[in-house]
Amino acid sequence: MSEPSVLITVETEYLPENTSSKEDKYAFAYCVSITNNGSSSIQLLSRYWLITDANGHKSEVYGDGVVGEQPHIKPGQKYRYVSGAMIDTPVGTMEGYYEMKNIDGSIFKSPIEVFSLFVPGSIH
Q1: Domain ranges in the chain?
Q2: How many Å separate Cα 33 from the centre of its chain?
């Protein structure tokens, strides 16, 4: 069986209506696109996130699936979902991986490169 080929892209958006700067809580949405560029179906089993704020505070999130689903993604298909994160500073980062299962039952990790969370105007 060929090595799985998964492309993961992330777009972020600051959510001022869900932010409380008085409490130092900054809300962000992130939209993830997962494209199966391989030749066989895969299933997303779980996720791991490492969230780091500008003070260096790190939090980890691990759980089954994404947004309550463990989607099957056929070759050439794309799966998209939107979720959110709250951090204590106007700037931070996220990174992690998805644990996936190949059609043959083998488990593999698809890394999610570091991406930024930032309030517009907070980075010069």
Answers
A1: 6-118
A2: 9
Q: Which tokens hold the place of 50?
A: 């490492």
Instruction: Please give the Cα distance from 85 to 98 (Å, whole number).
Output: 17
Q: Which tens digits make up the pLDDT trace of 108-123?
A: 999 999 999 999 987 6
Taking the C-alpha atoms of residue 112 and residue 122, their distance in angstroms, rounded to an integer, is 24
What CATH fold (topology level) applies to the domain 6-118? Answer: Immunoglobulin-like (2.60.40)
What value does the CA radius of gyration of the chain take, rounded to a whole number of Å? 16
Residues ≥6 apart with Cβ < 8 Å to 113: 8, 95
pTM metric for this prediction? 0.91
- CA–CA separation, 81 and 60 (whole Å): 20
